[in-house]
Amino acid sequence: MNENDRLKKYREKRDFRRTAEPSGGKRQPSDEPIFVIQKHDASNLHYDFRLEVDGVLKSWAVPKGPSTDPSVKRLALPTEDHPLDYADFEGVIPEGEYGAGTVLVWDTGPYRNLRAEKEQDALSMEEALDDGKLEVWLEGEKLQGGYALIRTGSGNEARWLLIKMDDDQADARRNPTSTEPASVLSGRTLEEIAEAEAGEEG
Ligand code: MN
């Protein structure tokens, strides 16, 4: 599937005359694939976990956000592929539009596919997605180390779980979603982004 086919769902849900979200096609794939976690104050506050795979951002909505505690499993609901351009999107999606609410880039950086590094049964990201089990090494500002995304159930009942892998970067005492709420791109909080955009309209 080419990029346009994969972004069809994303584009169908949005009116780019009304939302400042990117329509896609401008940002080129990186030498090192990136992850991004966006904090999104929509009807329900959640964190969008995205991984660059083959020219798009594979995406999951994580209601409680990522944990650094390997004993904690966080529900991750698959959402439509997003364009690479979305990785630095911050702003306010207007009332009445899909996903209305404020978005900030909570963490981002390069990642590695740990399953590709196995001596036996090495899998690409696409193969690992089909297999329902991703293991990635994140090099973010707030999150580092291994994270697993594991699919449970199938079809419409499919759910994924986001779990910190038990490595040197695991830390049950940290709680970065509470202690480090601001954007890694602009340093702004959700409130500051919302206020800035309200000011621009006036
Ligand atoms: Mn979202």
Task: Compose a concise summary of this entry.
The protein has 202 residues and is α+β, with helices and mostly antiparallel strands. It has five helices and nine strands; from the N terminus they run ααββββββαβββαα.
Describe the structure.
- The protein has 202 residues and is α+β, with helices and mostly antiparallel strands.
- The chain is globular, with a radius of gyration of 17 Å.
- Helices cover 16% and strands 36% of the residues.
- The chain contains five helices and nine strands; from the N terminus they run ααββββββαβββαα.
- The model has no long low-confidence stretch (mean pLDDT 94).
- Bound molecules: manganese (II) ion.
- Manganese (II) ion (MN) binds at residues 40, 42, 46, 48, 61, 99.
Layout: helices, strands, pairs:
Blueprint: H1 3-6, H2 8-12, E1 34-41, E2 45-53, E3 56-62, E4 73-83, E5 91-93, E6 101-113, H3 125-131, E7 133-139, E8 144-152, E9 159-164, H4 176-179, H5 190-201
Manganese (II) ion binds at residues 40, 42, 46, 48, 61, 99.
List keywords for this structure.
alpha+beta, eight-stranded antiparallel β-barrel, globular, binds manganese (II) ion
Structural class of the secondary elements? Answer: alpha+beta
Number-wise, the strands total 9
Radius of gyration: 17 Å
The coarse overall form would be globular
**Strand order in the largest sheet:** 1-2-3-4-9-8-7-6
Percent of residues in helices: 10-25%
Q: Ligands in the structure?
A: manganese (II) ion
Distance from first to last alpha carbon: 43 Å
SSE order: HHEEEEEEHEEEHH
- Main beta-sheet strand count, sense and barrel state: 8 strands, antiparallel, barrel
Individual helix count: 5
Mean pLDDT: 94
Regions with pLDDT < 50 over 5+ consecutive residues?
A: none
Q: What amount of the residues lies in strands?
A: 35-45%
